Amino acid sequence: MAVMNFPDPFITCCFVDDETIFVNLYHNHLMKHFHFYYNIDTNKLVGKVIDFSLGVESSKKNFPYKCFYNDEREEVYSFYRQGHALTINVHDESKYTIQKITDQDLG
To answer: Which of 12, 32, 82, 91 has the fewest CB atoms within 10 Å distance of its CB?
Structure first.
């Protein structure tokens, strides 16, 4: 386990189509978020890996809690334990927004 007493995953993913999955993770020692798209048929990345810090409001006990794909808006929503919410464009992984939706820990 990356953080003691937290059985939750530090990597979450969701399908965006039959062969592509969205993957996001939090490297708790660097306190950085990473996300990318991966094609399971070709076993290759689609696009590039995006990484950034979640800022001073994040800690080493943060991690992505759940992610969902919205096929109408073609966006992925990722929610973090410490209240961050990300919206990521399916066609351009570098187009994303970050919001802090709560000051309370989720889960």
So the answer is: 91
Can you point out the beta strands (E) in the chain? 11-15, 20-27, 32-39, 44-53, 64-70, 75-80, 84-89, 96-100
The structure's pTM equals 0.84
Residues 62, 78 contacting (CB under 8 angstroms): no
Which residues is 46 bridged to in the sheet? 37
Residue pair 11/27 in contact by the 8 Å Cβ criterion: no
Yes or no: say if 45 and 51 are a contact pair by the CB < 8 Å rule: no
Express each pLDDT in 2-25 by its tens digit. 566 665 558 899 999 999 999 999
Joined tokens for residue 80: 């973090």
Q: What is d(CA 100, CA 85) in angstroms, rounded to the nearest whole number?
A: 6
Q: What is the distance between the alpha carbons of residues 100 and 89, in angstroms, rounded to a whole number?
A: 18
